[in-house]
Amino acid sequence: MIKYFLIFFIFLNNCSFSDRAGIWSQNESLQSNNSKIETLFKKQQITKDEFNTNFLIQTPLKLINNQQEFGANSSGFLNKNLDFKKISRYKFSKIDNFDFFDPTLVFYNNDLVFFDKKGSILKFDDNSKIIWKKNYYTKVEKKISPILNFSIKDDTLIVTDNLSKYYALDLETGEILWSKNHNTIFISEIKIDNDKFYVIDSNNVLNCFSIKDGSKIWEFKSEFELIKSQKKLSIVYDEQNIYFYNSTGNLYSLDKNSGNLVWITPTKDTDNFFESFLFRTSKILLNEDQLFFSNNQNTFFAIDKNSGFINWKHNINSEIKPTVVDNVIFTISSEGFFFVIDKVSGNILRITDVFSQFKKKKRNKVKPTGMIVDINKVYLTLDNGRIIVVNINNGRTDSIFKITNGRISQPFIHNYYMFIVKDNEIIKLN
After folding, report:
1. What is the pTM of this model?
2. In the chain, how many domains are there?
C-alpha cells in the first residue's frame, strides 16, 4: 500500500525534445504479431465472457464526419483506412511519469506543435524542420521542467502549465500575446468556446478566461478533496451549458454565461483514500442530449445533459473515451472486451474479446490507452506499444502491430496520418 501513497508525491516533469533530436527517422516496416496487484476497488461483475457474438454491425458511410479537436481528429473518428506500411519517429528526451502525462498534440495547418523539457514551445513541419522555438520561462522555472497543455483558436495557441501559468502565443510567429499567473496549477484539458476558454485547476475550480487578454470572466468552485484522481480532467460544452467532472468524481453542469450551477451528479461511490487517488475516468463524450463516460470503478454512464439523471449504466471498466456512430456506442474495457451498446436503451448488443490472442498472464498486464473508429475498423492503442486493429462488423481482431515497447498514447489523426506519443518520441504512421 505504501507505494500508492508515494506515487501521490511524484511531480510530473522532465518532458523534453533532445537538443540532438533530428528529422523524422527513415521509414520502417511494422511488425505484425499475434504480478499480482492488490485490488483496491470492489469488483462488480467485471465482464469475462463474450455475448451475442453472431450479431453483425454495419457502419454507415456518414461516419465520415471527421470531427475536429485540438486541430486534429482526436475525438474518435477517422474517415480513411490506414495500412501502416510506413512508420517514422521523432525522438526526444524521456518523459518521466508518462502514465500521468496525457499528451496533447496540436496541429496547425500542416505543422505540429509540442514542447521540450525546459518549457520551450516548438513548431515544426512534416519533416521535423523547426519553424520557430520560443521559451517564456525563467531559469528557475526551466529547471522545474514545465509540462504544457495546448489548445487552438484560429491562429492563437492557448497554453496552461504545471507552474500556475497560462498564456497565449501567435501561432504564425510564436510571439507571446499575453501571459498571466494563476493561484495554483491546472489539471484539465483546455476547451475553447468562441472568445473564451475553460480549464480546471488543482483546487477543483473551473475557470472561464478571455482568449483576448486572459482575464477571468467567472469561476466555479466545486467540491475540494485533498486526495485527488491522477487523471487529466475532461470538459465538454453545448450552446447553453458546460459539463465537467472534478477530481472527486462529481459531474457538474453549469450555465456557460454565468457559471451558475445547473445540476450535480456523483459518479464515485467511495471516499476511500487510495481509491480516490487511483480513481480514473474517461473523457466525456457529449452526443445529442446525453453524456457518456466510464471509469475504472466498473461503471459506464449515460447521463441526461438537461437534468443530470442517469438514464442507464453498465458494469464496464474503462478509462478510454467511447465513440458514438448513429445510435450505437463503441467502447473497450480495460480487460479487452469490445462493447457495442444501443445509445438510447442502453441494451448491450454485442461483446467480443479483442485480447483473445494474448496469453492470460500477458493480457492481465495490458491496458487500452485510446481508440479511433474507422469506416469498418477500430484502431486500439495499448500500453505495451501495440495497436490492435478490430473488425467492427464482427468484433474480431484482424491484426496486432508492434509499434514500440512501452506505453503509447491515444491516437491522433491529421491528414490521414496517425500520430502517437511515447515517453521518448512522437510516432507517425501511414
Report:
1. 0.87
2. 1
